[in-house]
Design a protein that fits this description.
Largest sheet: 5 strands, mixed
CATH topology of the domain at 3-227 and 392-434: 2,3-Dihydroxybiphenyl 1,2-Dioxygenase, domain 1
Strand content: 15-25%
Helix content: 40-55%
Strand order of the largest sheet: 3-4-5-2-8
EC number: 1.13.11.93
Shape: globular
Radius of gyration: 23 Å
CATH class of the domain at 3-227 and 392-434: Alpha Beta
Organism: Aeromicrobium wangtongii
Enzyme class: oxidoreductase
Structural class: alpha+beta
Family: Belongs to the 2-oxoadipate dioxygenase/decarboxylase family.
Protein name: 2-oxoadipate dioxygenase/decarboxylase
Number of strands: 14
Length: 469
């Protein structure tokens, strides 16, 4: 009996969702085509260095999706579905205080965590959950109505959840059951054709377009699906050249002459999609909504806690300088700040423990003589090679910036009311599963590689004190 294992299930799941979203949002197909062209140009221009942060095959196939759910129960069920595809919750993101617009959700991302699984297919789904208890957005009456509406719907069928549980327990499924799992899981994220209660949707939309997209419809759906590119600035210009309207900026670090770090994102603007609405008089008529868009990303090296502190300091300095001189473009100011304070080489990032790297024995390592045990000396002497670990996660400010750039209205926030406490520990309880910290995942990869290097060089251990400072 042929078993489709977890990895292959995830590969196929990413592909079926991509096909689905391409049918629903044709401009996404254009985005994928342009992304492939950009990646090929970048490879031709930069040679082997182009694949330093991922092979062309991996980058071209890579996607992250985004969905939105309304309750802990829906989030728990989503976690079961994603675990069937080898995807686990990593990171906690609270967008309720995000700039430029607060969004009433907390989020995590479901993704592979093992290095080999990431190399095989790094599909991620950024999953946001509404917080109807937050009085800055919803009063008690609206909270009660929201929870009743969400509690009465079913996002994931019993059959889908049962198949997912079997896939989790067995590490895969026989072919017929695997096909059925993929069919049901993909359908769960398709855009519903059921008419939307117009008055209810508009009531929520006045508070938050994201709240309306979560609590104003009877199902969830792919909000965006994101290809990865090696040159996001080329992508941005190429999409505009095709007549696709892009948002005003690229979110995240600037383009500059030094190492690419963390994550840069942009998107084409949300398009008007035809939807059916149920009017107050009971009739059903056509309308449209602008809630889905086409995002694209470029990924850099993952930063350590010290690196993230530096990154946050640079963002704050950019904001400060733009307050003093608001006429200057953010992109220009950010380049200036990065050039002043961000290390200009990956080697310096590694020496200062600002970014995560894995280590391997160099193919042309010197032979003979006494080996040093110090990691820096091993690298400088040519025995060991440091390779950057790709940042696999997300940035709250960038996510909020993408969301805000595609919202049609500002929404409302009652700043005089208190927010409802929601942290990673609370979300773990809601999901019923531990949430991994991104830094812990990267650190585990780093330490595992050091163990392999020590064994390969015949050393009892490696002195990597600079990685602990």
């Amino acid at each position: 009996m042929t078993i489709v294992d977890t990895t292959e299930l995830r590969v196929r799941f990413a592909a079926t969702l991509s096909d689905l979203y391409g049918r629903e949002v044709p401009a996404y197909q254009t985005l994928v085509e342009v992304s492939a062209e950009v990646n090929q140009r970048y490879l031709e221009k930069n040679g082997a260095d182009a694949q330093r942060l991922g092979s062309l095959a991996r980058v071209t196939a890579e996607r992250h999706g985004a969905i939105r759910v309304g309750s802990p129960n829906e989030l728990r069920q989503a976690a079961v579905v994603f675990e069937a595809f080898g995807m686990y919750p990593v990171g906690f993101y609270d967008l309720r205080d995000a700039a430029p617009r607060p969004i009433p959700v907390v989020s995590t991302a479901f993704r592979p965590v093992d290095a080999a699984e990431l190399a095989a297919n790094p599909f991620r789904v950024f999953t946001s959950m509404l917080v109807p208890e937050d009085r800055r957005f919803f009063d008690a009456n609206l909270e009660a109505r929201l929870q009743a509406f969400i509690g009465a719907r079913t996002l994931f069928s019993v059959e889908l959840l049962e198949l997912a549980e079997i896939a989790i327990a067995d590490g895969g499924l026989p072919v017929p059951e695997a096909d059925r799992l993929l069919e049901l899981a993909t359908a769960a994220f398709a855009l519903s054709t059921e008419p939307i209660d117009e008055a209810w949707y508009r009531e929520l939309d006045a508070i938050s377009a994201v709240a309306a997209d979560i609590g104003g419809v009877a199902s969830t759906h792919i909000n965006h699906l994101t290809p990865r590119v090696l040159d996001i600035d080329d992508l941005y210009e190429s999409m505009q050249a095709r007549g696709i309207e892009m948002i005003d900026d690229i979110q995240g670090p600037p383009d500059w002459d030094g190492p690419d770090v963390l994550l840069r994102q942009t998107s084409f603007r949300a398009l008007a999609e035809p939807r059916l609405f149920r009017r107050a008089d009971g009739t059903v008529g056509e309308g449209d909504l602008r809630v889905r868009f086409g995002e694209v990303e470029a990924r850099g090296v993952a930063l350590t806690s010290a690196g993230r502190d530096l990154y946050d300091e640079l963002l704050a300095e950019v904001d400060r300088r733009r307050t003093v001189d608001p006429v200057r473009a953010r992109r220009e100011v950010a380049r200036e700040v990065w050039a002043e304070r961000m290390p200009h080489t990956e080697r310096e990032l590694e020496k200062r423990n600002l970014a995560f790297f894995t280590y391997s024995v160099a193919a042309d390592a010197p032979r003979g003589g006494d080996l040093p045990s110090d990691l820096t000396a091993l690298i400088d002497g040519g025995w060991v090679v440091a390779e950057p670990i790709v940042y696999e996660d997300f940035l709250p400010r960038s996510a909020a910036g993408i969301f805000a750039s595609n919202l049609t209205a500002a929404g409302t926030v009652n700043e005089e009311s208190d927010g409802t406490p929601r942290d990673m520990e609370w979300l773990e309880m809601a999901i019923g599963k531990p949430i991994l910290l991104p830094e812990e995942v990267y650190e585990a990869q780093r330490q595992a590689s050091l163990t392999v290097v020590a064994e390969g060089l015949g050393l009892d251990g490696i002195d990597a004190q600079h990685l602990k400072e």
